[in-house]
Fold:
Amino acid sequence: MNSKPRLSTYWVTCADGLETLLQEEIEGLGVQNIERFPGRLVFKGKLEDAYRICMWSRLASRVLTPIHTHEIEFSHDARDVAEELYEGANNFDWSLIFAPQSTFAVRLHIEREIKVNSQFATLRVKDGVVDSFMEAVGKRPSIDIKQPEITLYVLAGKKEHTYCLDLSGDSLHKRGYRHYMTDAPIKENLAAAILQRIQLQKKNPDIFLDPMCGSGTFIIEALMMLTDRAPGLVRRFGFNGWNGHDHDLWMSIKGEAAERHKEALEKPLPKFYAFDADWEAVKATKQNIRAAGFEALMHHIQVEERTLADWPDFQAEGKTSIVVTNPPYGERLGDKASSKAFYQGLSALLQKNFPNQTTAIIAAQIEQADVLAIKEPQTLRLMNGKLPIYIRSGEIKPATVTQPFLAVWQPQQFEKIEGAEDFTNRLQKNMQNLKKWAVKENIYCLRLYDADLPDFNIAVDLYGDRLHVQEYAPPKTIDPEKAKKRFNLALAAIRAVTGLNRDAIFIKTRARQEGKTQYTKQSTASKRFVVQEGKAKILVNLTDYLDTGLFLDHRQIRLRIAQEAKGKHFLNLYSYTSTASLHAALGGAASTTSVDLSNTYLNWSKENFVLNGLTVDHADQQHQFFASDCFEWLKEGHEQYDLIFIDPPTFSNSKKFYGTFDVQRDHLSLLKRAMNRLTTGGTLYFSNNYRGFELDDEIKAFYDVEELTSETIGLDYKRNTKIHRSWKIKHLEA
Structure:
């Protein structure tokens, strides 16, 4: 009659936050009666249970079996914890556990509030083990920190110290395939936990995408799950040198795992897509896939260098898809605002390409995760090493199809506003006249009114479904109370005509700016919105600064640049928020270079780029941003550009050029320097808003010059054709 196998106590450790998922996993392996503690599960079971966890657990960090407990018999203020640990190690006969010919290492974990030098305490544990061997067998084992045959895991506690044999040896998250690393990779067991959380194996998707694959961890872990490849199949373990190791049992479990994997390889697999903007990451992913033993499946995997703005047609309609990724932008951009813009852009892409499909996105801050458009989102907080991460998962919301505001606007019915009848009629007439054009051209942002009537000296601009109302400062001859009353009448009329609520209308007073006033905040509350222009999504700020981040009168020239930029090297001087550069990039420019003296505007520029899925990493040379005086920048460089856009301010304080910049005085020198950087067949667009501006005759004599003012002023500015002047300038043909 066979006796029951002896039950032992086992600890299974994991990263903080994984306890519930890990319990589900090992219960699926047949383990029962599990106790759960922070970062650790405890159960009594057979050796076979421990072996199966070592072989099959994708989430665990270590599998430990406690061997010896040393209780603390005294307590006083000056505890010598290191000596307690030595005594505990020395009081046990370790020759019962492993032979003196074996190498060993000690991993020490110290509970909070226990004060001891961990390095010295670890050394004392090793001394205790060695001295125990000398007393028992007269021989001492050697220490090997890198690849020990036996690993002892010691938990130093307040009331007792527990000495465990680490059956896993090295941490179980190390599968052995990550030969090539990228910055801030996610641990393999955390990646597997995320895939388990979204039920990858149950959903068995047709498409699996990681658009920022890094070193390929999600792709490889998904491959392992979907091919039923045990994570412990090809790695070494810490029980091999243990006296209690059952070799035949382990080989039986290993043979079973190999057979399961072989059978699963006969089943159909999804199409895997692994993209990254960094070529080094693409190479690392390919090399790690091969190192993991999946080279024969490379025909299922499309690994390419791509930005988010360069996604292919996935032909995903009618197919089950899963998108999982670990964006690196929290580290690269270094501030919450830029990272948030990136997550907004990623979310929009997911909505467009994978509506109603499953996603799991890692975020460094919860604010990033909050902008993701996910139905009934679930959040899992984990520790990736010492860094907290947030995983937002769920079903992707479909994109809402938005039309220009004027497409859905209809003339409103409202009571007459006494004293503002003429303004009301003019605004309504303007909107009716612009409606057909805006709908046909898909215009979301435009000017509705620009001081058309002398008594209502304001500008009304539409940004998506919000209004930006600028009150031009009245002359000193006008009674301030009368001006205030008239402005309030205008606001009432604007709300009545547009049908928009107060919270959709933003008000500023526009006066002549001096010095750096235009760069200073106008209010303390930041209200930033995303608006659409052509293919571009652009961040506008309707409250904090005098300018919104998008000059509406230059819309037509930006769209022209988008059409002409494909394959060209584009330079944008006085780039402001670099919206022209953004249009060029989305139009397929080979490169964009944006130069502006203001770091505020350049940071805003980068946010616009990442919002549209374009990389602005410092290692990337395709899209560059320089905080510099444009004159000095032109003087110092030699690169040539096929397409240049210059829209300088009328006047600015630039200490590096005559102390100030004046567009009328300095444009000749500016354009000459810029033309030296223009390729032979290239085009330079020059524009400015100075109403009295006259282009220097020398420019007309030296270059091929064509004025484009009428072509670059949209229908919404035809009532005020002096808003800007613009020219197309090329080198004369030889």
Q: What stands out?
A: The first helix runs from residue 19 to 27. Residues 512-525 have pLDDT under 50 and may be disordered.
